[in-house]
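Illustration: Ribosomal large subunit pseudouridine synthase C.
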Amino acid sequence: MPQREVRAVGASFLAGGVSPHFDVAMSCIFYKTPRAHAVFSQLAASYSRASDRPIPKLKVKFFFTKIPLPSKPTLTERACGRRPCRALTSCVQHVASHFQGEQPDPGASKITVYRLHLRNPPEFRTLRRPPQTAGQIIFIMKELGKISQKSVASDQVSMIEIDDSAAGQRIDNFLLRVCKGVPKSHIYRILRSGEVRVNKGRIDAQYRLELGDLVRVPPIRVAQPNETIAQAPVPSADFKIIFEDEHMLVIDKPAGVAVHGGSGVAFGVIEQMREARPQAKFLELVHRLDRETSGILMLAKKRSALVNLHEQIRENKMDKRYYACVHGEWASDWGRRRAVKEPLHKYLTADGERRVRVQADGLASHTVFNLIDRWPEYALLEAELKTGRTHQIRVHLQHLELPIVGDAKYGDFALNKALARANAKPGLKRMFLHAYRLKLTHPATGAPVQFEAPLPAECRSFVAQLNELRESQNGSNPETTPHG
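Result:
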């Protein structure tokens, strides 16, 4: 018997619910090589890791005894999707009797299912669906929890059945999500090489998954972190909820909290929300806010909602408004409205920190600033985003020489230090940038909706201090104050 057919028979036993020792059994029967024990040990270890079961022990006499088999056994159906194997069910049971451990599960093996289908079609239809490729682990994605996401990137081949939480997503983005810790370059390499299959066929990185697709993910080794370094657990946290239904969730994010984990940040809002809601099948960020920015943050609870909301963002159908308090003089010839259309370019500082600056060959960016109130050396503005570039409001205001109060990256560092001192008046220990209003179309109903988040207490206090200083200097009244 050719080696590949022996392997196919062994894989069919594994599909039937028994250990991979049958693969070794067939090798020992037909080859009786000295390497049989080493192969047995290797497969036994793999099976133990994959199934969390004790290893069924092989009887020692098997290694020294020749097992007689039926003469010229044949099989009319392909085993495990490979070439026909010379083995009958009687042969299978005969070999199995020489092992300690579980026996094949009738109906689970592709061989048995085929015979049952010919003999009794109605009974065949009541059985559970067997694996598409025997010997592989099937991950049914009824929910993409932490366990399945971590299990995909392993030294085992994974088969993932797509449900509505992943339907419509591009295959490359899907793999980046479920293969935690795997570099992006490696994900695209296995896609280009054809190691990732969908419904047994090759696909490219632009393929969009459909409900019921069966995705084959090859073995992926991930560098393990140093076990001596304890990983900090993600604390669950429920943030102030502005709106929630079965499609979306809108929260009021506090300043100082990242929206997701990243470089230098162990976890963020999305990780904490998932920890607080372990029953949630799907929870993803719709957009981002800078760590020091507070205000409205949207999360999608269904992939269909996420796709719809992303489309609204791309087509500029969302109306996002921010409050920003800046340091400097608002020019009188600007009136009460100033549009800024300066291209923005990302770059790295000498320390490796990511920054953004105005640059001619940068990405087109558009922000409209509306004057709400002003004081000597300060102004309160409403920022209206027309595009959504990284740090767009902060860099455009820096370009106007009106840096945001408390901005540690693009602001007046000496001023920020003075404002953060104890008993400073006015005093502020955060960046004054707050996403206060968001208008959009509901992703499911199509109805227009609007969400608002009032100014945080520390920002309202800063505005009140500016009003007091102005009144004490000239006795004037504030022009306008934001709701809060």
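Reading the tokens back as a structure: Residues 1-37, 56-117, 127-151, 226-230 have pLDDT under 50 and may be disordered.
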